[in-house]
Amino acid sequence: QVELKESGGGSVEQGGSLRLACATSARAFNLYCMGWFRQRPGKGREGVATIDSDGTINYATSVKGRFTISKDNAKNTLYLQMNSLKPEDTAMYYCALSRRNWCRLNSGMDYWGKGTLVTISS
Q: Quick one: pLDDT at residue 104?
């Protein structure tokens, strides 16, 4: 069983920054695709960014140029640097892992964290 634990959420003003982290218990972390997803109030879950085992990255159009996904294989940790935050970025953010070595924003993921809440005020 793989465990994922997000951290770094909080409340910031519009234009601010936050860095989310996701620690995982997965062995061979570097072999899997991982991603960040979010669920905004009243909306369904949506893909934010994914990173394949070879480093290929995909971003949702709404966050491209503002968010950066990265991972530290030595620490088994996934990150999401979020800059220029907007009120519409307010959401519960989830980390997810796929047992495949690639994934996309609409991929089905195999393991999920419990989420971390991000609130952006205007």
A: 92
